[in-house]
Specification:
C-GCAxxG-C-C family protein; about 140 residues; about 70% helix; CGCAxxGCC_motif
């Protein structure tokens, strides 16, 4: 397990939601205050509060967006298509490993069969984020 995955796991154990745990683990690389990221990511846990898109993947999405965006709201359309394409690739990698990207499916709410625990979703999302950052320097 990477240092970032260990940090994310510790954050989750301390009460952070899955999105916060993943996103806050990458703050240092982007010069973002961890408390600010904690606040930004709060609404993305528990599948945006309604068990839809996995919170860990939402955290990964935030970081890939930070890395991919050209960062100018006046020219927002320049990078978003490429960012979406990259996200589809990494979300698919998560789905291939875990069987879904939907929180309620991962937790087995309707089937009773857990596909992936929150700690494992966090670890997998951190690993995919690290892979993305390494490949897209």
């Amino acid at each position: 397990m990477s240092t970032k995955a260990e940090h994310a796991t510790k954050l989750h154990e301390n009460g952070c939601n899955c999105a916060q745990a993943v996103a806050c683990s990458f703050c240092q690389e982007f010069g973002i205050d961890e408390k600010e990221m904690f606040r930004i990511a709060e609404g993305f846990g528990l599948g945006m509060g309604v068990m839809e898109m996995c919170g860990a993947l939402s955290g990964m999405t935030m970081i890939i967006g930070l890395a991919s965006s050209q960062g100018n709201p006046d020219e927002g359309s320049k990078t978003k298509g490429d960012t979406y394409k990259k996200l589809r690739t990494y979300i698919q990698k998560f789905k291939d490993k875990n069987g879904s990207c939907i929180c309620r499916e991962l937790k087995g709410v309707e089937t009773g069969k857990v596909l992936c625990s929150c700690p494992q979703c966090i670890t997998d999302a951190v690993a995919l984020t690290e892979e993305y950052l390494k490949e897209n320097k």
